[in-house]
């Protein structure tokens, strides 16, 4: 994406991208967003929004400022990314990534993409119903990979924090299991910390 003009980026192209903003003349549907009426996903009909069964059009509501009035694009510029990658401790890196970059992109797009910040229970997030979700989280993975490369000997297996959002059942660890619901075998977190390791085989 073009950090200087987020909403004019090529990913929003109607023919070669993910389609654009919600129809500004239409009603608000979910997440302060309106129906997307162009692009390849204009006929997409999600059936939930957070906890609620609600069949609706795919909704977006592009916005340019965060909750305190700061232009959203400034969170994604070279200075912000450089500061993130220089963060020495994983816990601080994770906090900055989650609260400054990750959540603000959800806010910049809004609509279905805003459900992450509307729900307090991660099990009910439905932000993934907007296909842009997967592009955004690939970039989160990319930035984590870049942070690891800055000091690979130390950072490759740094991992800590809570098991889930707002959980009180102790600290996360590399031995925690990743559950795939039968799609593939469950594996510990330690197996996927290195993208060039045995289970994974990719780099950016």
TrEMBL record:
Superkingdom per UniProt: Eukaryota
Any one GO molecular function term: oxidoreductase activity
Coiled coil: none
Lyase is among the record's keywords: no
One of the Pfam families matching this protein, by short name: Tyrosinase
Ribosomal protein keyword on record: no
UniProt keyword terms in alphabetical order: Metal-binding
Segments forming domain Tyrosinase copper-binding: 130-141
Protein name according to UniProt: Tyrosinase copper-binding domain, di-copper centre-containing domain superfamily
Lineage: Eukaryota, Fungi, Dikarya, Ascomycota, Pezizomycotina
């Amino acid at each position: 994406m073009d950090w200087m003009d987020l909403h004019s980026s090529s990913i929003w192209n109607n023919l070669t991208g993910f389609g654009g903003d919600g129809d500004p003349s239409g009603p608000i549907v979910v997440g302060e967003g309106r129906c997307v009426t162009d692009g390849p996903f204009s006929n997409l009909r999600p059936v939930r929004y957070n906890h609620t069964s609600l069949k609706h059009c795919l909704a977006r509501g592009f916005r340019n400022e965060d909750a305190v009035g700061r232009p959203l694009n400034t969170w994604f510029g070279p200075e912000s990314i450089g500061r993130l990658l220089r963060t020495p401790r994983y816990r601080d890196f994770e906090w900055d990534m989650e609260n400054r970059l990750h959540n603000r992109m959800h806010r910049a797009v809004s609509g279905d993409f805003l459900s992450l910040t509307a729900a307090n229970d991660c099990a009910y997030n439905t932000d993934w119903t907007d296909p842009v979700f997967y592009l955004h989280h690939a970039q989160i993975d990319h930035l984590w990979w870049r942070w690891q490369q800055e000091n690979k000997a130390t950072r490759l297996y740094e991992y800590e924090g809570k098991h889930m959002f707002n959980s009180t059942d102790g600290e996360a660890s590399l031995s925690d299991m990743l559950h795939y619901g039968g799609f593939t075998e469950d594996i510990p977190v330690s197996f996927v910390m290195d993208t060039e390791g045995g289970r994974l085989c990719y780099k950016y």
